[in-house]
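Hi there,

I know you've been waiting on this one. I reran it after we fixed the sequence typo, so this is the corrected version. Both the input and the resulting structure follow.
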Amino acid sequence: MIDRSYLPYKSAREYIDRGMAKWMGFFISEHSTALSKKDDTANISCIIDEEEKMVLLTEAFLNKKTIILYTTIDKEPFVGTVHDMTNERLYLKTKERQHSFLYSQILRVRLEGVAEDE
């Protein structure tokens, strides 16, 4: 118990601190919004360089291989085959539809069935 006998007011002297109990309800709307918001950020720890990216994309295009494509557009990867390649864009055909990506939007490319570290 804390000695508050030196305080001039009776209410201040008799005050009993509730400790952390007074903070239990302190959860403002910004906290709730931040926790419930879908995390749309992409993992940029495994970005590959441009040369390696183009080699993998060209190999997948020429051999009609299925690739897993990580982009800045969506957190979830796109899985499909390379339908076409131009100087600026890659056209990827997935089960749902055909997507178009700028090469600068592509973070990482992985051939399906190939381990991460290869």
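Quick highlight: The beta strands are 66-71, 78-85, 89-93, 98-102, 106-111.

Best,
R. S.
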